[in-house]
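User: Design a sequence. Structure:
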């Protein structure tokens, strides 16, 4: 046990089945899992992270779960299997799925210009041509030329809103926004671009993006403890707080924050059990999957369209989803992982699946510091190198 901030940090590894597991984990998994989680704990200790979790799945079942530290320091609540985390930009996978549902129903075309739905975008300064040339297809793949940050002005006051509350506030930024490169020429991650697609979902469907996703994705998949922004009162005992490290000590962000008009970009909160259901949909392991989105549409979203700027891996973006060509130790042949990362208001997270072996990994950490992105990168690399490859060999055997 390690004493931190007048609380006890507890590391726990368990195996949980959401159904009947198809087989035992492959040879070497237990040792690899122990090694990965020991490095997880060491890294958390090194940077002072308050709490986090890592789980690994095969065929829709959680075969290993690691719980670490505190969900809320003030109350002394520990991270447990029911803890509700914020998933930040992983929300984008839901918004993109909503957009593709509407595409498949004939309500829109990906080749529609964004100004067809958001005429205020015509006010953006575009030194490369007319705004009418920027399409939904470009925005969903982060190649529209927009900046990365949603609201890049006026940081530093504690009374500032977390994000613009209303779309009108986002629209008011358009005359002060520019296109940074020739649209379609290269990848550059853009929160405003996906926020615009969330607004398109609202205009086309008549629902807010939160309502649309809840009714057409969360409810059919049984993600009953997933929600946007403010926590329902009955789930507050399970909500993980988030923290920033300042002067060597954790300072809470607060249990709730409002992502406002950008909720489709990064507003989702959920326990790991609900995220398991989301990844099982990706892998076609949920009986509701075809009703959510056709397999061929999901495969379309998983294309490798543009190389990203992540120097640590061979990574490509498709339609919101990211594909990594990972390599097992001692092998020159890559294997494919599909997923997304997230970071916002103290939370850093990732979710990845291997479609070939029907395996998946889920990670979340509730503490932001100068090293939080590096922490996620270290754990992600460990999982890719030491856990996923074991199941490739298992399938061959």
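Assistant: Done.
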């Amino acid at each position: 046990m390690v004493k931190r901030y007048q609380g006890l940090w507890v590391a726990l590894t368990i195996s949980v089945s959401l159904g009947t597991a198809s087989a035992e984990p492959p040879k070497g998994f237990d040792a690899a899992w122990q090694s990965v989680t020991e490095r997880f704990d060491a890294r958390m200790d090194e940077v002072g992270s308050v709490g986090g979790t890592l789980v690994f799945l095969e065929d829709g079942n959680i075969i290993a779960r690691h719980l670490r530290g505190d969900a809320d320091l003030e109350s002394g609540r520990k991270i447990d299997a029911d803890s509700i985390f914020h998933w930040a930009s992983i929300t984008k996978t839901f918004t993109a799925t909503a957009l593709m549902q509407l595409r498949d129903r004939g309500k829109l075309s990906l080749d529609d210009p964004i100004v067809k739905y958001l005429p205020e975008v015509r006010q953006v300064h575009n030194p490369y041509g007319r705004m009418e040339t920027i399409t939904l297809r470009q925005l969903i793949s982060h190649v529209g030329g927009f900046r990365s940050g949603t609201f890049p002005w006026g940081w530093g006051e504690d009374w500032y809103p977390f994000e613009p509350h209303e779309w009108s506030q986002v629209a008011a930024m358009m005359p002060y926004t520019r296109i940074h490169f020739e649209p379609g020429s290269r990848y550059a991650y853009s929160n405003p671009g996906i926020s615009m697609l969330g607004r398109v979902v609202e205009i086309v469907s008549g629902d807010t993006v939160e309502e649309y996703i809840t009714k057409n994705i969360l409810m059919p998949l049984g993600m009953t403890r997933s929600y946007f922004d403010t926590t329902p009162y009955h789930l507050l005992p399970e909500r993980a707080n988030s923290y920033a490290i300042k002067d060597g000590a954790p300072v809470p962000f607060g249990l709730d924050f409002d992502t406002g008009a950008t909720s489709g970009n990064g507003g989702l909160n959920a326990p790991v059990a609900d995220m398991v259901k989301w990844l099982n949909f990706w892998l076609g392991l949920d009986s509701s999957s075809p009703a959510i989105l056709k397999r061929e549409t999901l495969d379309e979203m998983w294309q490798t369209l543009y190389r990203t700027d992540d120097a640590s891996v061979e990574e490509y973006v498709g339609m919101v989803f990211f594909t990594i060509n990972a390599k097992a130790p001692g092998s020159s042949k890559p294997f494919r992982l599909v997923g997304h990362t997230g970071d916002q208001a103290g939370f850093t997270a990732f979710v990845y699946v291997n479609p070939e072996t029907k395996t998946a990994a889920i990670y979340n950490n509730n503490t932001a510091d100068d090293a939080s992105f590096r922490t996620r990168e270290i754990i992600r690399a460990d999982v890719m190198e030491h856990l996923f490859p074991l199941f490739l060999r298992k399938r061959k055997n």
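Confidence is low (pLDDT under 50) at residues 1-22. The domain at 2-93+211-396 is CATH 3.40.710.10 (Beta-lactamase).
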